């Protein structure tokens, strides 16, 4: 795309950054570190964030472990506090279903110190005819200790596309807005166009509304889930969305895109209905006809205009060859693009947009750029113009970045090494051992086309109940599969004398608690789930001393049972099974062992006892030599309250399992019915005593062997 008119502003930025080591015995606030971590497989990162307390949380994707997700929390100086890998806790051998490749595309912090993650999982399903692969959208709340609190896994219904959550934000009132992508691959049929959705969730993950971004003949699927989309809440509380749509030439030999557009719109926060919409065409180069840009950020500026960050193929006066460049688009408050500011490397090498964070001054942004293994953090003003730049060299290309008042955190890795780097700068953005030079070119360009009319032809907004016709929550739980050990090496650190962070992972305080009870940590946090919890104490020098408490739960005794009475069923031995999950079992008064089964070879009463922090409980079961008991019922009874033969029912001595007992009068009406051997017929119907007569009964039971037993007969009621 060539620009034929407009004023061109060229800024060449070249800073040679040389850090200095300044000893400071009073404060650690400006300290920098560079860590190299070794894991057991390749790890690439999708998000890194600073918590309000200065800790760092990061979400990654592991190559092995069936593509498990990796979540880790580090101290403010980069020491790992916990590191876990997460999978989906579900598998079935019947019509084998297996879930893998848990991908976290985005993550947002919550006020309680936890996080909500958004992504997808791959489901493999074999229906004994063919193998089926599908993607489910994943949303999960994880507390600050890494423990999963709730999970939502949305599965498409019928022929609807695969699903994934690309982005998530938290709103001013604590709800969540998530962008759901849909994809069916590069379909050649018009009827299979994909239209993405935006959902509003409560703080506990309940859907409040679903807005389908129906764009008529414009498509939004066919190229996978790897693209991020922009979400932000505006000053009027409405939601601004920046995504991508395009038209597809179908009913031809190959899937081909054309008329590709950046797509901007606003949704009413209360209802999910569109408020305004605009779009901006972008170039599809001949060599990359499936190009779909990732929208890394959309932000409302102080003057209510919008700033959008993405990468586009552009031809500019300084770089006339069409090439992909990071770009900041400045648009009106209703999404009409007013100008573009492009960024390119003076070396001519490809420059990649990796992440965008808000700057310390309203309207400014920190943009993470990558040129090979060099990372550059460019600060821009509200107009997209450069203010400053910091560059760093590393062993790997940059993945993601987080910014705070104490500096930046950069994660760098690739998919070819067991190692990754974490670089923490000081408050001024310096890290002397990693500082490098950067030379960038920015060009400010007016758009060379008119923003076309809106393409949203119909807004479809659904409630949670209505949305169930499109997808359903399968309720597959996200679980901590295991700890993911990290071997850290400090590459360099600023030699400040005040103190060092101490993470004491060797002296863990282990607490055993009865299931259902609570425990108060030293910082007054009340916990009740099994797991390892940390407490951070700030030392006089300004560093952290982190200690751990491991909470072990003893299973509540109310669940202990040996089940129903049973029989030998003609076998020489049978196995009794107690409720699993207790640490040890004492069978028939023997020494406690960690085995929940017991082999018996003779009839009798067998007992098991469990003792733990909840107390003790004993349960028993009787084993009979016979399995099906004959049924003896009286032929008459006299309900006259003389305590002799006053009712009619199954004797308690009969060990068959009652299914139902029905009593009929001579007209076929049911006058009594029960499925409990403890409930007898007292000769009444609708609380009125019946006169002397003959009544029919039908008795259905199961023997201890499971055999069905039925018996019919008559009984005489005598008054």
Secondary structure layout:
Layout: E1 9-16, E2 33-38, E3 43-50, E4 56-62, E5 69-74, E6 80-88, E7 91-92, E8 97-109, E9 115-126, E10 131-142, E11 148-156, E12 162-170, E13 176-183, E14 197-201, E15 207-212, E16 230-233, E17 239-249, E18 256-267, E19 274-281, E20 297-300, E21 306-314, E22 323-331, E23 337-345, E24 352-358, E25 365-371, E26 374-380, E27 386-393, E28 398-404, E29 407-412, E30 419-424, E31 435-445, E32 460-462, H1 464-467, E33 471-473, E34 478-483, E35 487-493, E36 502-503, E37 509-514, E38 519-520, E39 526-527, E40 531-538, E41 544-554, E42 566-567, E43 574-577, E44 586-587, E45 597-600, E46 604-612, E47 615-624, E48 636-637, E49 657-664, E50 670-674, E51 684-685, E52 688-689, E53 693-702, E54 708-717
Parallel strand pairs: 36-41, 37-41, 42-47, 48-54
Antiparallel strand pairs: 1-31, 2-30, 2-35, 3-4, 4-5, 5-6, 6-34, 7-8, 8-9, 9-10, 10-11, 11-33, 12-13, 13-14, 14-15, 15-32, 16-17, 17-18, 18-19, 20-21, 21-22, 22-23, 23-31, 24-25, 25-26, 26-27, 27-31, 28-29, 29-30, 38-39, 40-41, 43-45, 44-46, 46-47, 49-50, 49-53, 51-52, 53-54
Structure description:
The chain is 1% helix and 51% strand. It is mainly β and 719 residues long. Strands 1, 20, 21, 22, 23, 24, 25, 26, 27 and 31 form a 10-stranded antiparallel sheet that branches. It has a 6-stranded antiparallel sheet with strand order 7-8-9-10-11-33, with no helix packed on it. It has a 5-stranded antiparallel sheet with strand order 28-29-30-2-35, with no helix packed on it.
């Amino acid at each position: 795309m060539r620009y034929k008119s407009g004023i061109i502003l060229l800024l060449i930025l070249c800073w040679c950054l040389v850090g200095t080591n300044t000893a400071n015995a009073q404060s650690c606030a400006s300290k920098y570190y560079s860590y190299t971590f070794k894991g057991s497989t390749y790890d690439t990162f999708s998000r890194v964030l600073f918590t309000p307390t200065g800790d760092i949380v990061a979400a990654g994707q592991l190559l092995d472990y069936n593509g498990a997700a990796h979540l880790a929390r580090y101290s403010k100086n980069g020491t790992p506090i916990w590191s876990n890998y997460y999978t989906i806790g579900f598998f079935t051998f019947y019509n084998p279903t297996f879930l893998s490749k848990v991908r976290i595309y985005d993550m947002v912090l919550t006020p309680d110190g936890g996080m909500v993650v958004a992504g997808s999982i791959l489901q493999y399903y074999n229906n004994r005819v063919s193998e089926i692969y599908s993607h489910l959208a994943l949303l999960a709340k994880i507390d600050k200790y890494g423990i999963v609190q709730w999970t939502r896994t949305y599965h498409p219904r019928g022929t609807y596309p695969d699903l994934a959550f690309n982005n998530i934000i938290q709103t001013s009132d604590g709800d969540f807005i998530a962008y759901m992508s849909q994809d069916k691959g590069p379909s050649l049929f018009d009827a299979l166009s994909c239209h993405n959705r935006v959902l509003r969730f409560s703080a506990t993950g309940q859907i409040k509304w679903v807005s389908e971004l129906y764009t008529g003949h414009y498509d939004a699927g066919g190229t996978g889930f790897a693209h991020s989309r922009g979400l932000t809440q505006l000053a009027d509380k409405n939601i601004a969305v920046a995504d991508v749509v395009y038209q597809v030439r179908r009913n031809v030999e190959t899937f081909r895109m054309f008329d590709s557009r950046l797509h901007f719109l606003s949704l009413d926060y209360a209802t999910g209905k569109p408020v305004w919409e605009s779009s901006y065409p972008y170039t599809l180069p001949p060599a990359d006809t499936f190009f779909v840009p990732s929208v890394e950020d959309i932000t409302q500026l102080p003057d209510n205009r919008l700033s959008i960050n993405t990468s586009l193929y552009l031809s500019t006066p300084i770089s006339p060859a069409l090439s992909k460049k990071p770009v900041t688009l400045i648009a009106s408050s209703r999404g009409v693009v007013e100008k573009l500011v492009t960024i390119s490397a003076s070396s001519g090498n490809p420059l990649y947009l990796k992440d965008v964070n808000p700057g310390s001054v309203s309207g400014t942004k920190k943009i993470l750029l990558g040129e090979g293994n060099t990372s550059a953090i460019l600060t821009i003003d509200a107009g997209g113009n450069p203010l400053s730049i910091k560059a760093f060299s590393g062993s790997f290309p940059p993945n993601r970045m987080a910014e705070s008042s104490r500096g930046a955190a950069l994660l760098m890795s690739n998919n070819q090494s067991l190692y990754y780097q974490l670089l923490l700068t000081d408050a001024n953005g310096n890290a002397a051992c990693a500082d490098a030079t950067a030379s960038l070119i920015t060009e400010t360009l007016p758009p060379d086309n008119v923003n076309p009319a809106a393409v949203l032809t119909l807004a479809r907004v659904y409630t949670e109940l209505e949305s169930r016709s499109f997808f359903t929550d399968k309720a597959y739980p996200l679980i901590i599969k295991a700890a993911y050990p990290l071997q850290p090496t400090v590459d360099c650190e600023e030699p400040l004398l005040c103190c060092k962070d101490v993470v004491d992972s060797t002296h863990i305080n282990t607490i055993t608690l009865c299931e259902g009870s609570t425990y108060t940590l030293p910082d007054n946090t009340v916990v009740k789930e099994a797991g390892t919890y940390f407490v951070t104490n700030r030392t006089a020098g300004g560093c952290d001393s982190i200690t751990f408490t491991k909470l072990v739960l003893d299973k509540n005794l109310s669940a202990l049972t040996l089940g129903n009475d049973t029989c030998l069923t003609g076998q020489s031995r049978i196995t009794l099974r107690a409720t699993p999950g207790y640490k040890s079992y004492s069978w028939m008064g023997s020494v406690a062992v960690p085995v929940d089964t017991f082999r018996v070879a003779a009839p009798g009463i067998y007992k098991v006892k469990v003792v733990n922090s909840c107390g003790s409980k004993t349960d028993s079961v009787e084993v009979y030599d016979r399995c099906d008991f004959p049924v003896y019922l009286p032929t008459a009874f006299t309900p006259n309250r003389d305590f002799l033969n006053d009712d009619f029912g199954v004797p308690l001595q009969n060990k068959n399992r009652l299914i139902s007992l029905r009593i009929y009068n001579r007209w076929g009406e049911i006058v009594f019915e029960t499925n409990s051997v403890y409930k007898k017929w007292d000769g009444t119907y609708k609380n009125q005593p019946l006169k002397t007569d003959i009544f029919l009964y039908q008795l259905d039971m199961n023997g201890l062997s499971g055999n069905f037993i039925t018996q019919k007969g008559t009984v005489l009621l005598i008054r």
